[in-house]
Amino acid sequence: MRLVMASANAHKAIEIAEILTDHDIEQRPTGMGEVVESEETLEGNARLKAEAVCAATGTPAVADDTGLEVDALGGLPGVRSARFAGDSATDEENLVKLLNELRKVPDSDRTARFRTVAMVVFPDGDAVSADGVVEGVIAVQPSGSGGFGYDSVFVPNEGGGLTFAEMEPERKNIISHRGRAFRLLATMLAD
To answer: Where along the chain do its domains lie?
Structure first.
């Protein structure tokens, strides 16, 4: 199946293309403006992005939205993960804010999860979506040079004590929220 990628995030696009290898994935059209993620849910934002790219191209579009939910922060940053330190915040600024918010939180209370909603929207308006979740904890300080966003502080329960940023991409994709969501989505599309 031919799909157009809604994400303009190069890191996400690479991860998604590595998972959806059975599909012909095209990059989003150059010059297409950013889609304002104004919804209050991951599913709502994934739908906004997929619908915008599908409407612009007339081709089924694949999108996702991901949030880091930290229990000690009442689920924040959640749907605002990419904008936690402000609407134009960098990954580094978001990471610094997260660690500052957790500086007095004991290790035993630093539980968190990454959640991804992956979605394909078709030109006829139909949509297929899948969720992926991985549980873990937030490290006290960053470790590792791979990945992006919060990967250097997220230690998945199934990761043998490594942060996502310390893992090889193939290993990360096996257990990651995005990997789980997109593998499920691929299965749903095959059906």
So the answer is: 2-190
**Angle formed by the axes of helices 177-190 and 10-19, nearest 10°:** 50
- Decide: helix, strand or coil at residue 11: helix
Sign of CA dihedral 187, 75, 173, 63: positive
**For 112-121, what is each residue's pLDDT tens digit?**
999 999 999 9
For 126-160, what is each residue's pLDDT tens digit?
Answer: 999 999 999 999 999 999 999 889 999 999 999 99
Q: How many CB atoms lie within 10 A of CB 142?
A: 16
Class of CATH domain 2-190: alpha beta
Q: What is the pLDDT of residues 160-172, one digit of tens each?
A: 999 999 999 889 9
- State how far the Cα of 11 lies from the Cα of 13, in Å rounded to an integer: 5
Catalytic residues: 65
CB atoms inside a 10 Å sphere around CB 33: 8
Q: Record the pTM.
A: 0.89
Burial class (CB in 10 A: 0-12, 13-18, 19+), 106: exposed
Q: What is the spatial distance between Cα 29 and Cα 61, in angstroms, rounded to a whole number?
A: 11
The C-alpha atoms of residue 136 and residue 124 are separated, in whole angstroms, by: 38
What pLDDT, on the 0 to 100 scale, is given for residue 173? 85
Residue type, 7: S
